[in-house]
Amino acid sequence: MSILTGFARGFRLLASESSLRTTRLITKMANNERSFIMIKPDGVHRGLVGKIIQRFEERGYKLVALKQITASKAHLEEHYVDLKDKPFFPSLISYMVSGPVVAMVWQGLDIVKQGRAMLGATNPLASAPGSIRGDFSIQTGRNICHGSDSVDSANREIAHWFKTEEINDYKSALIDSWVYE
User: Fold this and answer.
1) Given the residues 45, 79, 146, 160, the one annotated as active site
2) Which Pfam families match (predicted)?
3) Which one of 46, 57, 83, 161 has the largest count of C-beta atoms within 10 Å of its C-beta?
């Protein structure tokens, strides 16, 4: 084998290893995507908190923040600011202040998109069986959960509901080893 052939093989091997490391790094970064999921008062009152958390855990997502809170009107108006011109806005806010909610931050690969799919369509009657709304709710005004609809809104919502120190960035041997390659 010539020196040039050996060099070419070595270079291909290094390039292949580098590409693999780059792919793993990109995947690891994607695994750190976060979404804000909130169980609304109807879900809390109906005792569905554990079942909803269980679905996200079983799917392989990591819970990095959780709190139960009865949010103020002002806090909820800020959260739903993009809906303020909708005719249902006053009744939405009135309903949301009627009881406690469970605010959560979930982390994992494509969690924003997959979290929305797990919740189901906003109108529960259009939600597939197997989705949270498809299994547990009937009317839009009592659709059990809220989930971020984009990474940007997730970041905004997470910052609105949680202080930085309330988010637990930890390594999970189970999830990191058995959910992701």
Assistant:
1) 146
2) NDK
3) 161
